[in-house]
Amino acid sequence: MTPDLFDDLPDEPGSEVLTEGALILRRFASDQAESLLDAIAGVTAAAPLRKMKTPGGHTMSAAMSCCGEQGWVTDARGYRYQSEDPLSGRPWPAMPEVFRELAREAASAAGYEGFSPDACLINCYEPGAKMGLHQDKDEYDFDQPIVSVTLGLSQVFQFGGLRRNERPVNVPLHHGDVVVWGGPARLRYHGVLTLKAGEHPLTGVCRYNLTFRRAR
Ligand code: MD3
Ligand code: FE
To answer: Model's pTM, two decimal places?
Structure first.
C-alpha cells in the first residue's frame, strides 16, 4: 500500500466535500443511468447534439443540446439562455421527469431543498474534446446551485478559484458521479481536460455531462 495514493480524493461510492459549497456524490446516479441515457436519446432526437460557436469564432469541441424551459446557447452574438432551440426555432424538449427528480434529490442531499431547474445542458465529449476554464454566470440567481451528472467515460474535471489565475485541482469524474455546486463554489472557475480514448458499455466513445440549472 502506498500511503500517498490516498492523498487523492477517493473515487468510491459515498460523498465528499470537495471545497466549501461543492459536494461530490460518487455513483449517486448509477442506478438510474440507463433511464437517464434513454431520456438523453429522446431529447437529442428532437434537439440534436451540435457543436456551437463561441462569440470569438471558435467551435466548441463538446457537442451540446438542452432541455427544459430554457437552453444555453452560444453564437456570434454571445452566450445566453433562450427558450427556443436555434436549430429548429421551436421550444426545447421538456425536461424528462427522471432528470428533474435526480437533480432535486442530489440538491436536497447537499442541503438545497426544493431545487427546481428550468434548464438542463447536455454536453457530449468524444475523445479529444475538452472545455477550458470558465465561470457559469449566465444565470439570474447565483444563490441557486448547479447539479452535474457524469455518464459514460471518465474525464478529469478541473476546479479552480474565483480568479482564472488560481491553479485548479484535478478531480476525476466517473460514470454515475453527481456534483452539487453552490454557495462559495458557485462562481469558481472550472473546466475539463481532454477526454482520453476509451469505450464505455453504455455510452460507447462518449462522456455525457448533464448540468441542471436555474437560469431565470
Ligand atoms: C462548478 N461542464 O457545462 S461539469 C458546463 O464536464 C461545464 O461538462 C463541465 O462546466 C462538464 O458549464 C463541468 C461540473 C460543473 C458544472 C458547473 C459548475 C462544475 C461547476 C458551476 C460552478 C462551479
Ligand atoms: Fe461550466
So the answer is: 0.95
